[in-house]
Amino acid sequence: MASSYKEMEEKWQRRWSEEGLDRSERSDKKKFMIVFAYPGVSGYLHVGHMRGYTYCDVIGRYKRMTGHNVMFPVGTHATGNGAVTLANRIARNDKDMIDYLKRNGCPDDKLEELMDPLSLVWFFNDVYVNDYWKRFGFLSDWRRFTCTLYQDYAKFMQWQFMKLNDAKLLIQKPYFMPACTECGPVAVDASESDISKGGNAETQEYTLLKFRCNDVFLVAATLRPETVYGQVNFWVNPDVEYVKMRKGDETWIVSPAAAKKLSYQKDGCEIIGTINGKDMVGWMCEAPMIRRPVPVFPAKFCDPNVGTGLVTSVPSDAPDDWISLEEVKNDPKMISEYGLTKEQIDSAVPISIISMDGYGDFPAKDIIDSMGIKRSGDPKLLDAKKQVYKDGYHTGKMKAVCGKFAGLRVEDAKDRMKEEMIASGEAESFHDLSEEVICRCGSPVMIKRVDDQWFINYADEELTKRTSGHCRTMDIIPAEYQNNVHTVLNWFRERACVRQGNWLGTKFPYDERWTIEAISDSTLYPIYYIISMYANRKEILPEQMTEPFFDHVVLGKDDAENVSKITGISKELLEKIRKDVDYWYPLDLNVGGKDHMTVHFPTFLFNHAAILPSEKLPRGIMVNWYITGKKSKISKSKGGAQPIPGAAERFGVDSLRLYYAHVASPYADVEWDEDIVMSYRQRLDRIITMTEELNSFTEGETETEVDTWLLSRFGTHIAAIHEGMKKLDIRAMASETYFEMFNDMKWYVRRGGCNSAVIRNALKMWISAMSPITPHVSEELWSICNFEGLVSEYQYPDIPEGNAGAEFGETLIRDVIADMAQIIKVTEIKAERAFIYTSPEWKKKVMRTALDLSSSGKLDIPTLTKMCMADESLRKHGKTVPELAKKFATEMSRTSNDWRYALLQLDETEHLSSAARFISSETGVNVTVISADDEGLYDPKGRSKAALPGRPAIYLE
RNA sequence: GCUGGAGUAGCCAAGCCUGGUCAAAGGCGACAGACUCAAGAUCUGUUCUCGUAGGGGUUCACCGGUUCGAAUCCGGUCUCCAGCACCA
Nearest nucleotide to A492 by CA–C1' distance? Predict the structure, then answer.
């Protein structure tokens, strides 16, 4: 016995490798290929991540033991800006980041090296492989490891895009992306790798509303185009100097900042002059859609840096508008200062346009009142605005005043009204960031129109149909996702698949200025694991991995001879790789976290369907849920989580694997709790101790009923495991093995079981059942028992038929003990002797007759009664027979009766007699078992009359 | 709001598709007992409620329905969770 888990783990991992279990090669066996969605390289992972990975290894090991040749390759996904961000933070000497790295075991002398993104990726590749996956005992084929930043992977990726292009699934159209005015495209995200400010900014799509005023347009930007029916006036900031801008053959008035932004998105913009805000106050301009003249009023809340710096006023639904309008109306000084007329003031009356749950006619007023906002400029107005916007979007309906849009939900009206105004030339769309974003270089980041952005056309109907159709033939679990995946596939639109800027990844083959984006390069990759091994060994070189190469080995195009000439790869090797691909693909199972349901899995399916023939499309998907933190999520960036090597050290790898396998359904989130992991460790400890003890048994030649029982029970458990694993029910496997079988073993010993041959037989079943989940402990126990070879390579034999009678026999004993205990507890008598009366033969006969009738569907009270009373031997028992017949007929017609066959197989008197000693010792009462048929039996209270088959009568005194 | 999911005893969690040994597996925790120098140890029992003979009563979010019979099937209500995109 190894002295520690760690020692045990290392020992067996070495053995597996020595025996070649971590290498997958073609063979005559049925193959099984499984992968997990490879993780993004963005720092250390935590214990939660190991959940899904562990499921893969468990499934792979199980398949291996049931006759499959298994391939379980792993890799990493380093595309994107994660590594760049991380490297930058280290380079900046970010204290939190350095602390986090060190806490996870990063050596000080590595930090310098990690300032380079690529070095950082190579570093973490090693961490993932060695500290996580190898440490956990995965039987993965490490020779096939690949990373999305490898040269050879890039060649595969470029080929994939060529095939998408061949399938006419690559399209180009305009796109709006954040870009620094000096450095070009940047990533705007919370990690702020490219930018110095504004990481939380989102790109928002505004509608520019054009208000005609003689020969110029005042242009307002709004996020709520559906509110145009509520427009009653227009706002300008009197303190701001606006610009006049030529836009095509029109003249627009907007803020200077807006003019600059617009020039990045619209053609033909040119500033031709300026105009002061205060000069516009008092103008009348025509509102779009409603075509009504509205007055221009002054308002300080118009920020020249937001939108266009000009705002349309919808007081009914915009809190700012409501409160500012009130202020204008109640400020005679302002009215006279700007020369506003009474007609203008009186015309600005709020119009109720949207009905919303929980609000009256004027939602803006309601929220102002409920939040206690008194004047413009109150910072709470921002929250008020968001709240009304959100509630309106979700629950609002357009009122009758909204013309043909009346009755529409806000969500729908928004798009329809916007489109209509754009079509009529009254509006245009405009993209802007929700907050100020500044590049690392100090220049502002703006939204820039790109005319030739590439997309993968996932909206393609043919593709969607083919993909969706294929999904119906797959094993997708849980079943809920099997049903929902079609909705997701239909919901997919064109997806921008390349980007510019400071990102890692593969160059787009048709335009090297672009980098293939992170989701798009991780869809078809499982097939690449079959090829990566040859690239890793340098048997094929990136420059040889051209279109004809992949066309041949993946799609079987052209013949090896020709391709060999073109690529310089030997014909034999090409044929070998082609055969490998043909053997291992399709992928049997892709395991990924629940977040992949709406992004990775659909694109994984789409790309397979787009490029590969139907017989090579994936066969299965399994989605796993998460391990969460106590209160918030255990996030790798927050650093609160237990590092994986630390957990492995502390609990032992197999305890963790058992924890993942059993703690909950894979399809539910679980809260990480070390005490629970500890309890799994204790269970493993107990199992080890028990196995060692059992293995020392040497006696017992004759098989007793407990022996028969144990083997039957174990057979039943193993059958349940196989049944469950048809649906990859790992939890059922764990439950049967580590709990049910364990409890049966305990009962066996307690009942005095000691037959060493039986025990060895049972141990063999038990230890092999444990092997997929706790492989290290299983190997150790397997070797302690001197079983042949490695348990990891053991093939589960066919299971012998269960013995229902034997299984029922033990249930009977337990029931009798429980009944006696209950009687003693309730009556509080101090019993010294117990008499157990088993059912008389004639009652069994009645039951048998009833069962026979029941199985032929003819059971009813009169039939049964008649049949029994026709029997001479029964009739002599008089009126108790019809009573019993009635009881059985009633009970048996309403319940399932399989167990009754088992009980009739059993000689209860014999069985209970042989267990009498055991029952006595368990209950502390001296037990005598008597058949109710016995002549002159001791039965002072006449209890024996109550004896029924499977339900002996009990008398205590 | 849309799409999907969930609500089971002190807690976690099976069961629900395929209605009937379901007062409802298993695990934690708690209580009691055994063992004991000791152990985050192990073993045994109890853990909805009433009950001096193995029984009865009331339960599986809530309301109603189907059925001889419902935790399980159907309709409705309430509450909670996830995703809603270019982010891996």
Answer: B85
